[in-house]
Amino acid sequence: MKAIVCEAFGPIDDLKCKEIDDPVVKPGHVVVNVEAAGVNFPDGLLVQGLYQMKPPCPFVPGNEVAGVVAEVGEGVKHISVGQRVIALSNLGGFAEKVLVPATHVMPLPDPIDVKEGAALVTAHATAHHALKQRAKIQPGETLVVTGAAGGTGLAAVQIGKEMGARVIAVCSTGEKLALAKEHGADILINYKEKNLKDAIKEATDGKGADVVYECVGGDTFHACSRSMAWEGRLLVVGFAGGEIPQFPVNLSLVKGYSVVGVFWGSFTQHDPKGFAANMQELLTWYVQGKVKVVVDEALPMERATEAMAKVMNREVKGKMVITP
């Protein structure tokens, strides 16, 4: 089968599209014929050796896919050959076939397009876990979302609104803010035009944010860390801006708020039942039209490096997908 292979940690352009052996099914697993794979910011970090996880090389990146089940291993009862599914693969998704633990494979409802299904798993599930389990956000609270036009930021806007929050979207352009507004944002802040700390203070009548979904890092994080309400929750989701900020812990002490890490991949491993319940809720919302994946572009596998570069350069509105 064809796959995108990382032979050694290095620049994204070093990735190879090549023939490798098909995966072999084993007990408790299924093999999925991949029809679409979501591209995420951590994929680019992973192949450069910059992510928390460093798999042995060579490996195939890609952690979220949608497609059709080709083979079912011994002991698997809830999935059958020929079924449309979405799957969390951890690795191996940028290929024509992938072996996935059956616990991380779910039926894909017929109304959901395969490209949207592939792009639903990581971004929306991260935002859902962050706001539900980590922030425990409550109706009427104010939620600030940075990078609000990216895949996971846009998901946080949608899910925050569904959970009853007042959502402030933070983006770098008017075009991106318009997309966030289209998906439910109540207040828009262009941090290139306004001082972010002052803008959040004004938008919250001086109270500050109850919850911040922070996935940019750098100066954006620093501004948010000074814009928290009493008993607020500052969610550390990622560092799409490139800089991992240093946090002055006295701010948390004086302002009485929590800094909460969000590592969704670890959550899926530590609490598979909670992950499954979250995904069921997400899929229900999706079918009901309450959340929506925005697929900016779908590129063939041969252009996977281009797709990953666009994500890393923050040139994508919504999600990027590759199609074997």
From TrEMBL:
Q: Name one Pfam family in it.
A: ADH_zinc_N
Q: Which residues form the signal peptide?
A: none
Enoyl reductase (ER) domain boundaries = 10-322
Source species, domain of life: Bacteria
InterPro entries, per this entry?
ADH-like_C, ADH-like_N, ER, GroES-like_sf, NAD(P)-bd_dom_sf, Zn-ADH-like_protein
GO MF annotation: an example: oxidoreductase activity
What is the name listed in the Swiss-Prot or TrEMBL entry for this protein?
A: Zinc-containing alcohol dehydrogenase superfamily protein
